[in-house]
Amino acid sequence: MTTRADFNAWAANQEAPRITTWLRETSEPDWSATVHHPLFDALAEGRLAGDEFAAYMVQDYGFVDPFTALIGHAIGRAPGMADRVVLGQFMGMLTSDENSTFQRTFEAFGVPVSTREAPDYLPETRAFQALLRETGDGGGYADILAALVVTEWVYLAWALRITRAEGLHPLVGEWIDLHDNPAFQDFVAWLRRRLDEEAERLDDAAFTRMAERFRETVARERAFHDAVMPR
Ligand SMILES: Cc1ncc(CO)c(N)n1
């Protein structure tokens, strides 16, 4: 399912085969289960209570910390300045606008300082953190791009999919806006293009490793959102 031969067999029947399209398809059913996760509908329809939104954001900030470090690894391992500029600009947004959304959410919904400083992460949050750290520490540039393509593309996909209710809490609206805007669409398109290019050049073993990283990241996304969904 994850070898270059599998990709070539799939590509033979496609008009314009892209490695990232194939990776997404081989990640089903987890891909669609994440994009269509009921958490995102509850969010967009204003059905998440304030403390439920805040609890999700606390767990997600646990994702964002090693994710920010992973962008740092990507900047370091990128082949040159062109990639470092795009990744660095995304890092700028993440550590300014997006970080501010988290901080103001914790403030607005009264998340105690003790929770902010030492959050009680769910096992699924910890498993995702471990994957991001391992990818940054031991992965090559294509492995890092695979993880980034998954995390950013699934968030773009749900944000484009959902229909927003009127009168959402402004911070919920802000959270959706962060993942549904032209700059973010461009960033995801760039990540996909760069992974398509880098994957093309990998030897067979590295190609399989990259594809497995992609699929595992999708599985972690699904498990994380299943765990944070209030029931
Ligand atoms: C779990 C998760 N995946 C992806 C994103 C988008 O960066 C996010 N904020 N959280």
Automatic annotation (TrEMBL):
<feature type="binding site">
    <location>
        <position position="60"/>
    </location>
    <ligand>
        <name>substrate</name>
    </ligand>
</feature>
<dbReference type="InterPro" id="IPR016084">
    <property type="entry name" value="Haem_Oase-like_multi-hlx"/>
</dbReference>
<keyword id="KW-0784">Thiamine biosynthesis</keyword>
<dbReference type="GO" id="GO:0050334">
    <property type="term" value="F:thiaminase activity"/>
</dbReference>
<comment type="similarity">
    <text>Belongs to the TenA family.</text>
</comment>
<feature type="binding site">
    <location>
        <position position="98"/>
    </location>
    <ligand>
        <name>substrate</name>
    </ligand>
</feature>
<comment type="pathway">
    <text>Cofactor biosynthesis; thiamine diphosphate biosynthesis.</text>
</comment>
<feature type="active site" description="Proton donor">
    <location>
        <position position="221"/>
    </location>
</feature>
<comment type="function">
    <text>Catalyzes an amino-pyrimidine hydrolysis reaction at the C5' of the pyrimidine moiety of thiamine compounds, a reaction that is part of a thiamine salvage pathway. Thus, catalyzes the conversion of 4-amino-5-aminomethyl-2-methylpyrimidine to 4-amino-5-hydroxymethyl-2-methylpyrimidine (HMP).</text>
</comment>
<protein>
    <recommendedName>
        <fullName>Aminopyrimidine aminohydrolase</fullName>
        <ecNumber>3.5.99.2</ecNumber>
    </recommendedName>
</protein>
<feature type="domain" description="Thiaminase-2/PQQC">
    <location>
        <begin position="28"/>
        <end position="227"/>
    </location>
</feature>
<dbReference type="Pfam" id="PF03070">
    <property type="entry name" value="TENA_THI-4"/>
</dbReference>
<dbReference type="InterPro" id="IPR050967">
    <property type="entry name" value="Thiamine_Salvage_TenA"/>
</dbReference>
<dbReference type="GO" id="GO:0009229">
    <property type="term" value="P:thiamine diphosphate biosynthetic process"/>
</dbReference>
<feature type="binding site">
    <location>
        <position position="152"/>
    </location>
    <ligand>
        <name>substrate</name>
    </ligand>
</feature>
<dbReference type="GO" id="GO:0009228">
    <property type="term" value="P:thiamine biosynthetic process"/>
</dbReference>
<keyword id="KW-0378">Hydrolase</keyword>
<dbReference type="InterPro" id="IPR026285">
    <property type="entry name" value="TenA_E"/>
</dbReference>
<dbReference type="GO" id="GO:0005829">
    <property type="term" value="C:cytosol"/>
</dbReference>
<dbReference type="InterPro" id="IPR004305">
    <property type="entry name" value="Thiaminase-2/PQQC"/>
</dbReference>
